[in-house]
Amino acid sequence: YAAKAAGSQLMIYTAELDESADAAAQLGADLRHSLDDGDFRVVYQPIVELTTTRFEAVEALVRWHHPVRGFVSPVDFIPVAEDNGLIVELGEFVMRTSCHKFAGWRRDLGAAAPSYISVNVSARQLREPEFPDVVAAILAECGLEPAALLVEVTETALFGGGTAVHAVETLHRTGVRIALDDFGTGHSSLGLLRTVPVDVLKVDKSFVDEIIAGGGRAVIVDALIHVSKGLGLRAVAEGVETAEQAAYLRELGYEYAQGYFFGKPVPEPDFTPRALVVDQA
Ligand code: C2E
Ligand code: MG
Ligand code: MG
Ligand code: MG
């Protein structure tokens, strides 16, 4: 009986595995079609300077309008695109689209334009030997200097060193700036800061979430601003949703933040890449 029970459990387990493997394979095939059909868009979210609420920078985030399922979250499809390698093509699309858009804002707005564009890059892209050259070519075709681009990578993407770290070093040498995204949630956070050239720490939303109205000290955001300042890095607090959080972060010494409180990611036609006007009272 025990053997039979174990057997049926095993069957259920593999059936579930098959199902999720099928679903991922289907999603992967859909990604391929959607890349050919142009179903991907880039949306833009402001990064603001807390003291002035000036529009400091813009993060580019990809959106997929699936022909049947409609909105599918990047949280669900980015891992699939990483597994089947399509992230290389998709990532290049996001990089090219957002750099061109940013160059256009600069032309239109001059000094009032945000100072850099922030683009997420996955480990799979960093491991492509051509990646630094592709980035350089995109910057050249847009007429942007390397410092106009900030590449966001996760700690986990750089964990264990190797090619991904090499690519980051190469990019950084050319003048492209590097951010550690979701900082504090991945592997080996603090050690990485010594071995990888990093300019910006994006302090993960989960730590900002600890700042609740009337609550006690939010220990990690407090610690991370000291780490950032001590190492001469810029800190950007992610996922700021309330005026209380913005005010608290400013009190702790944070200069930059991003979140629904300041602006949600929106498609280009709705996005006005010029300054401010957020009531932080
Ligand atoms: P991320 O790079 O950490 O981006 C921040 C995510 O938090 C975005 O979700 C953004 O819409 C969301 N967000 C921003 N402010 C708030 C807030 O105040 N509250 C809440 N609840 N959420 C907020 P999104 O666009 O769904 O992207 C999720 C993740 O998918 C990104 O996290 C990034 O890791 C990945 N991703 C998105 N676009 C790309 C891309 O073009 N390439 C790569 N490789 N990854 C991407
Ligand atoms: Mg990011
Ligand atoms: Mg993040
Ligand atoms: Mg995140």
TrEMBL record:
Residues 24-279 form the EAL domain. It comes from the Bacteria. This is Diguanylate cyclase (GGDEF)-like protein.
